[in-house]
Amino acid sequence: MNTVNMIAYHREGDYLLPNLIPPAQPKIGIWGMGRRDFLRKRHDGLYTGLLLSGKLNAHLEEIDRSAIEMFDLLVKQYAKREGVTEELKAKDQMEWVRRMNGIRESVTEVIMTDLIQSN
User: Fold this and answer.
1) pLDDT tens-digit profile, the chain (119 residues)
2) Domain for residue 12, yes or no?
3) Is the residue at 46 inside a domain?
4) Is 86 exposed, middle or buried (0-12, 13-18, 19+ CB in 10 A)?
5) Are 60 and 28 in contact (CB under 8 A)?
6) Is residue 100 within 8 Å of residue 71, measured between CB atoms?
């Protein structure tokens, strides 16, 4: 392995090739991707500013993490408030699924409005 100008190289045949390591991919899930799409479509200046400053991925990772925590907390709170319990699940599984799907939809709307599509 050779080093030239602080870059490590390795030899393959007659060529010196740089040992390139791609940058780490941000850990962005569905909520972070939704935020990215919202910023690109509705707040291009903010999106470009975050991108050029190198803060976009950190922002999206934080939004994604916050949205996941918020989703889990709100689903539990809504289920408790509406009486969706393990007893209901054991007694009438289809009713439990129907009500939980409604709760998840409601929580998704709250997160989209309050977190993803906010300025």
Assistant:
1) 544 467 888 899 999 888 888 777 788 999 999 999 999 999 999 999 999 999 999 999 999 999 999 999 999 999 999 999 999 999 999 999 999 999 999 999 999 999 999 87
2) no
3) yes
4) exposed
5) yes
6) no
- Asked if the structure places residue 44 within a domain, the reply is yes
CB atoms within 10 A of CB 102: 13
Strand partners, 4: 7
Range of the domain at 38: 28-116
**Res 20: pLDDT:** 83
- Cβ atoms of 26 and 64 within 8 Å: the answer is no
Q: Which residue has the tokens 């030239």?
A: 4
CA 80 to mean position of chain CA atoms: 26
Neighbour count for residue 6 (Cβ, 10 Å):
5
How many Cα atoms occupy the beta-carbon half-sphere of 30 within 13 Å? 5
Direct distance between the N- and C-terminal alpha carbons of the chain, in angstroms, rounded to an integer? 49
Number of domains in the chain: 1
Residue 104 lies in a domain: yes
